[in-house]
Amino acid sequence: MAKYLISFPSAAMLVTGDELLAAGRDAHAVIEEAKAAGVYVFAGGINESVAPVLVAADGAFAEGGYPWAPPLNGGFTVLELPTRDDAIAWAARIAQACRCEQELREFQFDPQS
Q: pLDDT (tens digit, 9 = 90+) per residue, 43-67?
C-alpha cells in the first residue's frame, strides 16, 4: 500500500465563523473514520504563528524558509491506501468536510526509511 499526502494551503479555506467551526467538526469526523478504517497515518496543520527556520548542513540557521518558495502552511493528512482511486475518494471526503479542494500526492517508498 502507498502513503498519500492530502493537503490544502490556508488561503484555500474561505470559510469563517460558524461555518469554520462546522468544517473543523466535519474534518475531525472524517479523520475518525480514517482511523476506524485503519488507513490513518497522521494529520495536522502547520502552526503559522511560529516562523520557519532555514537550517544549513553546518548547523547555521536563519529565520524564515526558502526566500524563493511560497510559504508552506495549511492542513495535511497522510493516509495509507491500496489504490490511487481510494486516495481520491478519501481526498474528496476531506474536501467536503473542509469546504475546499485538496491536493493529493503519493509518497515514494523508501525501503531505507
A: 999 999 999 999 999 999 999 999 9
Q: Is residue 58 part of a domain?
A: no
Distance, in Å, from the CA atom of 107 to the CA atom of 78, rounded to the nearest integer, reads 9
Q: Which domain holds residue 92?
A: 2-45+75-106
Cα-based distances in Å from 106 to 1, 57, 84: 11, 27, 8
Q: Does residue 69 sit within a domain?
A: no
Kindly list the strands in the beta sheet with 75-81, ordered across the sheet, starting from the edge strand earlier in the chain.
40-45, 75-81, 2-8, 103-106
Within a domain: 38: yes
Phi, psi of 87 (to 5 degrees): -65, -40
- Residue 61 placed within a domain: no
pLDDT tens column, 97-107 = 999 999 999 99
